[in-house]
Amino acid sequence: xxxxxxxxxxxxxxxxxxxxxxxxxxxxxxxxxxxxxxxxxxxxxxxxxxxxxxxxxxxxxxxxxxxxxxxxxxxxxxxxxxxxxxxx
Length: 88
Known about the structure:
By secondary structure, this protein is mostly helical. It has a domain at 2-27 and 36-63. The protein is built from 3 helices and no strands. It is extended and about 50 Å long. The termini are far apart.
């Protein structure tokens, strides 16, 4: 169930991003046919997801156990670019 939830959420977020790109560049793209169903995902989930802070999103994903476990992510602050780990 978690896998299906993640796949559906990623799918509709990706569709929303492609639609946004299409609106920004109307000459280069054609409107796509909307997928059947998914009205709740398009009208409720995507706008809410875009308004919620990253901190709350990660907390929700951890609560639903939708993240990798068994490792500690590298410490970095928001907006700081990724750097490879130092050699040991």
